[in-house]
Specification:
252 residues, Rossmann fold, six-stranded mixed beta sheet, four-stranded antiparallel beta sheet, binds adenosine-5'-triphosphate, binds magnesium ion
């Protein structure tokens, strides 16, 4: 479990996170949802230690994040940010190889190459493995970064809007794969999603944010009501049962 205790963060006097208390359960898919500017990426980046929050604590499986060294952290937790920056003259296969560095200690061995091959296969990148990142479409590049995080082979996978740019098939395939990681491999996934229907179809747990605070959190089946979601997004959302789960209707 990842526990967030009294986390606050401000930049230049502007409060971005205010007293955030929540937990991200182990061995579940947790969807981090909420309107633009809610603080979702900031929270995810705090867990991924892109910066030190102004106040509060984060614990990963019982250990205070600030006491975990970066090498150890990279073996426990992989993050794919919302905005992906990397030198564009990097080939897909080499990018995915970066995911193996926390394990390889400087030299890739057979197990690392096997993990890279598996990630290429899983994210439909085999034919693109020799391409440079700036020769890819937006969705292909997104898949390459997710493949890198996957190759890191961590207990925790944190993905910020991974469905960005993905077509229907690859979006669904990604969510099904995350489900497999949780159900078959005992991993834990935290994913920022804007598409409520993907959230309702795949997430076990929801953490909903607005204005840098938690509005509600809990098991999807309990918290994802028309009232709560309409209030969160300040827009009418109808939740209707469909095919064993729920469907959000808000398109018109
Ligand atoms: N470096 C920064 N300096 C100042 N303000 C920032 C900075 N980064 C983020 N913010 C502000 O913090 C708030 C939360 O931003 P954040 O990126 O966490 O939102 P988000 O929930 O991920 O939104 P989105 O759905 O649009 O990605 C926003 O109001 C944003 O303008
Ligand atoms: Mg964001």
């Amino acid at each position: 479990m990842i526990t967030i205790e009294n986390l606050s963060h401000a930049i230049a006097g502007h409060k971005i996170l205010t007293n955030v208390n929540t937990h991200l359960p182990h061995n579940k898919i947790t969807a981090l949802i909420g309107p633009n500017g809610a603080g979702k990426s900031t929270l995810l980046n705090a867990i991924g230690r892109q910066f030190d929050a102004t106040a509060g604590d984060i614990y990963i499986d019982g250990a205070a994040l600030k006491n975990i060294d970066l090498q150890d952290q990279a073996r426990r937790l992989a993050t794919v940010a919302q905005h992906l920056h990397v030198g564009s003259r990097i080939r897909v296969i080499d990018l995915i190889g970066f995911g193996r560095w926390p394990h390889a200690k400087g030299r890739l061995v057979q197990a690392d190459y096997a993990a890279i091959d598996a990630a290429l296969e899983l994210f439909d990148l085999v034919e693109l493995s020799g391409r440079f990142l700036d020769e890819l479409s937006g969705g292909q590049r997104q898949r390459a970064f997710i493949a890198m995080a996957h190759a890191q082979d961590t207990d925790w996978l944190l993905l910020d809007e991974p469905l960005n740019n993905l077509d229907l098939k690859h979006g669904r395939s990604l969510m099904a794969h995350l489900r497999h990681l949780v159900d078959a491999q005992n991993r834990s996934v935290v994913v920022v999603l804007h598409d409520l229907n993907f959230t309702l179809a795949w997430a076990d747990h929801i953490v909903a944010m607005r204005d840098g605070t938690i509005v509600f959190d809990g098991p999807t089946a309990e918290v994802a009501t028309s009232e709560a979601l309409s209030d969160l997004y300040q827009t009418p959302i109808e939740i209707v049962p469909m095919g064993g789960h729920y469907f959000a209707h808000y398109h018109r």
